[in-house]
Write a structure and sequence with these properties.
The complex is a heterodimer of chains A (398) and B (82). By secondary structure, chain A is an alpha/beta fold. Chain A is built from 14 helices and 13 strands. In chain A, strands 1, 2, 3, 4, 5, 6, 7, 8, 9, 12 and 13 form an eleven-stranded mixed beta sheet that branches. A two-stranded antiparallel ribbon of chain A has the order 10-11. In chain A, helix 1 packs across helix 14. Chain B has 82 residues and is mostly helical. Chain B is globular, with a radius of gyration of 11 Å. The model of chain B has no long low-confidence stretch (mean pLDDT 90). The chains are: A alpha/beta (398), B mainly alpha (82). At the A-B interface, helix 3 of A face helix 2 of B.
């Protein structure tokens, strides 16, 4: 019998503000965190939360993870004393590009002032494992700690792999999630050169007029625990991580498989892993990037698995905050958990014009009540990354 | 060109630099140890860079290992420059 995994704490820093509930409440109220074509975490002021030394020792992506981590730890009731042997608490955090801002500044100094002026902190700040390293040190977690790197599915990958560690018995708890801070000149220019970014600066997933994604930044951290141990210590359980499905397209470096076959396979695997059926699903938090290719392929994948005429509400968090890349999967898992808990389907903001063949219920206009009809509140959260990495998490709110 | 190296000048450079690393300026005295000031090897690597920039004195691995107090750092820089 495999061990059950529950979520006991969540935290987030997003373009909608600092805090997981801030994200949920503002998104459900129809607020957008996108300004001037970007989802910057503009309410995040590092020194409000961290000491001068902590700020100096961490790239922005790590700062996000630390602040989201503090929120999650406090909610789980872990501040003060860890509930388990620290050597049995792991840390798994995803990122798409890591400390690219630090890399760019270091390169500028190298070119303009010479190699002897390159900051010695360049490597420890930019390395993609900086966030899990910082969290392990911050909370004195002594188990297995590492980063997952799979572009825009990194955050979801981290959560899925973290759940496996508990299920397998390697860890009693895992601090997991994803973080990204890549609103930088190089990342902007490079995504733009790929024609991936929206030239109009509008994120309107699934709408016929969508023309690319809008970059965002932020992080989300979740505390996962062995369900039995969490119950023993009387922890408040927010949700269960029921299933994890991950596949590869083996198709193209950046484009999704047009038919969404890899995505559909991940959806099936997640349901199978959860011991659930398509009929059990009450909500889908889509990857929904607002790129022409993704949203079409994802719609096909969802229909292939949930049924051609499925009425399950499908919405995209990216309509409100843009695409948080390696943090997206984690932020969206948090958004999914809160949506399921509150029995509310948050809206796909900006969705107005349907495209032929794309006829799911994308929750246009405004949030609405999520009908569970006495069933468990089971939802899916999709994440697909450059490289053809597909990850689906099956979550159940209690 | 590098600034004139006097103990007073080096002390001022260090007192100006350390608060960037999160050190309280009032805690900085010649006898204060870097350990007590919570200045670790990464901070010292940055401080070495500032000192090299200002005085042209390079502090490398072994040197940094020998420095325990703010006074040690000042003395080492002054002796190297002389």
């Amino acid at each position: 019998m495999r061990r059950e995994v529950v979520v006991t704490g969540i935290g987030a820093v997003t373009p909608l503000g600092v805090g997981a509930r801030t994200l949920h409440e503002r998104w459900c109220a129809g607020s957008s965190g996108i300004e001037s074509g970007e989802g910057a975490a503009s309410e995040f002021e590092p020194t409000d939360h961290l000491t001068v030394k902590e700020v100096r020792r961490a790239d922005r992506f790590t700062q996000f993870a630390m602040v989201a981590g503090d929120e999650a730890v406090a909610e789980a009731g872990w501040d003060g004393e860890l509930p388990y042997d620290p050597s049995r608490i792991d840390v798994v955090i995803g990122t798409g590009i890591g400390g690219i801002g630090t890399l760019e500044r270091g390169k500028e100094i190298l070119m303009e002032q010479g190699e002897r002026k390159v900051p010695p902190l360049s490597i420890p700040l930019m390395m993609s494992n900086a966030a899990p390293a910082a969290l392990s040190m911050r909370y004195k977690l002594l188990g297995n700690s590492f980063g997952t790197v799979s572009a825009c599915s990194a955050g979801a990958h981290a959560i899925g792999e973290a759940a496996r560690k508990i299920q397998y018995g390697d860890a009693d708890a895992v601090m997991t999630g994803g973080s990204e801070a890549s609103l930088t000149p190089l990342a902007r220019a490079a995504f733009s050169a790929l024609d991936a970014l929206s030239p109009t600066g509008i994120s309107r997933p699934f709408d016929a007029r969508r023309d690319g994604f809008v970059m965002g930044e932020g992080a989300a951290i979740l505390i996962l625990e062995d369900a039995e141990k969490a119950a023993e210590r009387g922890a408040r359980v927010l949700a269960k991580v029921r299933g994890f499905g991950a596949t590869s397209d083996a198709y193209h470096l950046t484009a999704p498989d047009k038919e969404g076959a890899g995505a559909a396979a991940a959806l099936r695997k997640a349901l199978e892993d959860a011991g659930a059926t398509p009929e059990d699903v009450v909500y889908v938090n889509a990857h929904g990037t607002s790129t022409p290719l993704n949203d079409r392929a994802e719609t096909k994948a969802i229909k292939a698995v949930l049924g051609e005429d499925t009425e399950v509400p499908v919405s995209s968090t990216k309509s409100a905050i843009g695409h948080l890349l390696g943090a997206a999967g984690a932020v969206e898992a948090v958004a999914t958990i809160l949506a399921l808990r509150d029995r509310i389907a948050p809206p796909t903001l900006g969705y107005e014009e349907p495209e032929e063949g794309m006829d799911l219920d994308y929750v246009p206009g405004q949030a609405r009540q999520l009908r569970v009809n006495g069933k468990a509140a089971i939802g899916l959260s999709n994440s697909f990354g450059f490289g053809g990495h597909n990850v689906v998490l099956c979550l159940e709110a209690t | 060109m590098a600034a004139t190296v006097t103990p007073e000048a080096v002390e001022k450079t260090i007192v100006d630099a350390l608060p960037q690393f999160g050190v309280e300026e009032s805690d900085i005295t010649r006898d204060a140890t870097f350990e007590d000031l919570d200045v670790d090897s990464l901070d010292l690597a940055e401080l070495s860079q500032i000192i090299e920039d200002e005085y042209g004195v390079q502090l490398k691995g072994d040197d940094v290992g020998k420095i325990k107090t703010v006074g040690d750092a000042i003395d080492l820089v002054v002796s190297r420059a002389g």
